Amino acid sequence: MTQLIKSLVVLSKMVYPPMPSGVAKHFLTVCLPLQVLLSPLAFAGEFCGSAQQWIAETDMQAEVVVYTDHQAFVESKAAIEPLTVPQFFSNPEGTAGIPRVVSCKMKTAEQINAVYGTDGAVAGSSQSCETVLSRLLDSQFSQSAGQPTKLGRNDFVIDEEDSTFIGPMWLDPWPFQPVTVDEDGIVHLLSRSLYVPDAWYIPMPDRFKGVYYCHVISPEYLDALITGALPRPGQ
């Protein structure tokens, strides 16, 4: 499996030219086995591609644009043709430098169906950032089955997402804090969303419609909490 991932990385460097400073472009052009997509180390660089599939209930594979510059990410937008998802890792943990947060700018199921579903629906209904967290959490524990872990599935709860409707509200306050721990030691996974339906009555340009944005815990940081590589916040 590791050799497969390395081969894909080498192939991407051979096929695609260097991107401008602050942006690295990665393409989901190969149908990877599900266990590769769900491994925290294997899919960390393309996480928002999986998140797009989960939030729109679709098998379509998005082109993921990975930003390393915050302002460039802020100015980026999800696109429908081709289906393109900006991604940004942020808020590094102080000890190991692992980014705590991954931010994804995705398209809604309704807009995906409007553009690509002329011969039948290719997406279900739009889900939520809570769905993304639930799928991520389940996949991490599925991957760690049979291996020693510090925390179990019952040590986590997913809080209701903090819903916003305009970009500045989604971005502020920054950095986003994806985790809190209550007095019983339960880890609460937080998310902040920006949802704009693809509807005629929304008073904004079409390029801003049909989007679902999420800030959630990064796969690598979640894995570090589960395995005990990093302690729960506050410990």
Structural class: alpha/beta
| Tally of discrete structural domains | 1
Radius of gyration: 18 Å
Helix content: 25-40%
In percent terms, what proportion of residues is strand? 15-25%
Average of pLDDT: 83
Give the helix tally.
Answer: 8
Largest sheet: 8 strands, mixed
Q: Strand tally, please?
A: 11
Order of helices and strands: HEHHEHEEEHHEEHEEEEH
Q: Rough shape? A: globular
* Unreliable parts: 1-43
Helix/strand layout:
Layout: H1 2-15, E1 23-26, H2 34-38, H3 47-56, E2 63-67, H4 70-75, E3 79-80, E4 83-92, E5 99-107, H5 109-116, H6 129-143, E6 156-158, E7 162-164, H7 167-171, E8 179-181, E9 187-189, E10 192-196, E11 211-217, H8 219-227
Parallel strand pairs: 2-4, 6-9, 7-10
Antiparallel strand pairs: 1-2, 3-4, 4-5, 5-11, 8-9, 10-11
Could you characterize the architecture of this molecule?
31% of the residues lie in helices and 23% in strands. The chain has 235 residues and is of the alpha/beta class. It has one domain (2-227). The strands form 2 sheets. Strands 1, 2, 3, 4, 5, 7, 10 and 11 form an 8-stranded mixed beta sheet that branches. It has a 3-stranded mixed beta sheet with strand order 6-9-8, covered by helices on one side. A hairpin with a 6-residue loop joins strand 4 and strand 5. Helix 6 (129-143) packs across helix 8. It is globular. It starts with a helix and ends in an 8-residue tail after the last helix.
